[in-house]
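Quick one:
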Amino acid sequence: LINAVLRRVSETGQNVDTVPDLPTWLLEGWQEAYGAEQTAAMENVLRQTPPLDLQFRDANALKDWQVANPGIGHVLTPTCLRLEETGDVTRLPGFDAGMWWVQDISAALAAPLLRADAQSDILDLCAAPGGKTLQLAAGGGRVTALDASKNRLQHLTANLARTGLEAEILLADLENWDPPRKFSRVLLDAPCSATGTIRRHPDLPLHRRRSDIEKSARLQSTLLERAADATTPGGTLVYCVCSLEPEEGEGVARAFLASRDDFSLMPIGADEVPECLSMAVTGAGHVRTTPAMLAASGGCDGFFAARFQKKAEAQT
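Output:
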């Protein structure tokens, strides 16, 4: 396939170096949101082969792995190890023992924002394939993981079995789901355009249009309303997406606060994210990562997270 494409490019007289990597509508949106310089830096990272991040269940598990496998990878956080070489992850040390799971450092930022503990009743929405569920279960909380995809939930169930962690699994469509009870901690990792993951899925821009972003934002707003209704008064709600599009991140968060007077923004502090990504905390109290962050070590996925608190006097 590659040879056929390159032959076709050669026959048409195009210079391979001038063929755009990303569609114009996407680049123009990034330039408006992040500026030309930051967009160019993001493009540069997207052209590189991404490293592999392993998320360990706790800091001791990572230390034990390093002792058994000296000199492999480098530590990004006390529970995240970055490997330069990628390949069949099932062949990596510790896979069968369930010591870790694959999860980009950006995606790992959301779960800790819930500030959950062993007494927390946690609802993880749109949970599969389960990286955040595993993080929350490793923290000792009672986790209920919901997703509308049976196939994706099978991956989550397999990951739980491999790591020895526990969570209640529910197959349901959030748009039509009636929660049996309220939860003190709710995490919504909403379906999105996934433009933050282009470095791992370079074909993704070929399947996206500007209209898809607008459609996704409408769905995200609907799902966030459903997540809010499942949150107890005084409870914490975290909304996140692996998208670089402000319409799906900051825009949805602003619209939610404007429509729900029973919620307030719970700003995220720089001390709540790893030091290497402290620049991801915005002046508005959100988390916003771009591929240009951590560029020297391979970048990271684009990601957005906002945290809200349901007012204690809100009526159920």
